[in-house]
Amino acid sequence: MQNASQTVAADSADTIISINDLGKTYDSGFTALKNVNLAIKRGEIFALLGPNGAGKTTLIGIICGIVRASSGSVTVDGNDIVRDYRAARAAIGLVPQELATDTWETVWATVNFSRGLFGKAPDAAYIEHILRALSLWEKKDNRILTLSGGMKRRVMIAKALSHEPRVLFLDEPTAGVDVELRQDMWQVVHGLREQGVTIILTTHYIEEAEEMADRIGIINHGELMLVERKQALISKLGRKQLTLHLAEPLAEVPAALAEFKLERAHDGYDLLYTYDTQNESTGIGPLLDAVDNAGIRVRDLNTSQSSLEEIFVSLVRRK
Amino acid sequence: MINHRAIRAIYLFEMNRTWRTVLQSIVSPVLSTSLYFIVFGAAIGSRINAVEGVDYGAFLVPGLIMLTLLQQSISNAAFGIYFPKFSGTIYEMLSAPVSPLEVIAGYVGAAASKAIMIGLIILVTSTVFVEVRIAHPVWMLAFLVLTAVTFSLFGFIIGIWADGFEKLQIIPMLIVTPLTFLGGSFYSISMLPPLWQKITMFNPVVYLISGFRWSFYEVSDVSLAVSVGITLFILLCCLTVVTWVFRTGYKLKH
Question: What mean pLDDT is reported for chain B?
């Protein structure tokens, strides 16, 4: 596991965003970010997880130019976000958390406005392509005022994609969106990744991060606690559980098995053994021997692994 | 390199807002100013003596145009930048590859264009009620453009400063409108008692109206050079404040 504080966000060919010693203290004295170091790889989907107020939106805000950093530096595709802000920002598309739209504009007008704002020449065919991909084409002449919340969210994604960004920030993109729209959106995200777009998302739906992300960063109290590949994170941090399905129920766990700290479940038909995959010995062999010696007949067994959500909650609480 | 497409996008976005609300944006100010011509120009004006050799109805025209020009420049630019702050869409402007100058060019350009357009419509409308002559059309246009740009910048500052609709109205209502009414829109400064003549000279709007009226009838309260100088000075002050706003991120960035 990479400790975030030790992570060197070195610029390299496969790094598209490099964050070095980034800090932010607001005028109120609240420190939102503390020496954050992070390197986002080109073409990956990176999920940033953290509880409310952890610093996710501040971090995104600084990279996108909305919030000023108190210390440290950020480069986007090799361009410093302050010195070379034009090149850095031109590479970024942002879908913020809040639903902020030009209420009285039509979908077509507002998406074209965004493209112009980012200095791109008009391209009706490309805008049509985006609107069709986001199922907005039929609504292109509708005023945003008349759209549902989910459709407004799509409009914001269309605006963020209008200038063909190489990096897309999605800050809680599926908050308040129904299941069908959410799945559509993730299809779009997958499609973008296939085109080489780097995607950084924050979400409260941890199952989304689990399903979508290549790497996961966990942030809390302004500190990046860890950054790890999703599968590695789950396997390294995840606690596994062995379930023994018994032929006859046990009224209580025999004293001979006390050292294994087993739990009874399903009216004594199951025995649960929790172990750490990182330990030198998982203890499964001795457990099975002890069970056999105790004369307990095992009908079946299976193992299961902690979900990302359980890992996340455990990490945040530990901190 | 200048992001001219961004300037164009902001400008057209703001102008589209004008066309979308044409009754409120254009018809309303033109109609209300026309009422001044009817009441003070055609009706009461016919019973008032000429001012500095100019019929009172005609004398009013530059002052009333300037009155509307100031109000429209300020309110258009203030609302233009305030509304994205209010609705949250300002995030897009802040995260776009645009310089402060380009943002200002887009918003202030649109606000000034609209104000100039209204000013010219009022000028044309006034010819229905009174006889207007323009002695120096180039100077007239120059004053129109310079004043519109200057006060659009001022409005832009108000829009950034305001954190509520009430604040958006406070300065135009409580400061700009009284200064305009007392700045010689309806009278020549020479018609005031000596003490008030002196006090009035602290009102910057006097210089704008005086210069503008000179371009019509070659009569003025102060010299042309002073009028131009004061207008340019106000422009410079507004530019300085706007530059500071963007440099510090005042009310825009945390």
Answer: 88
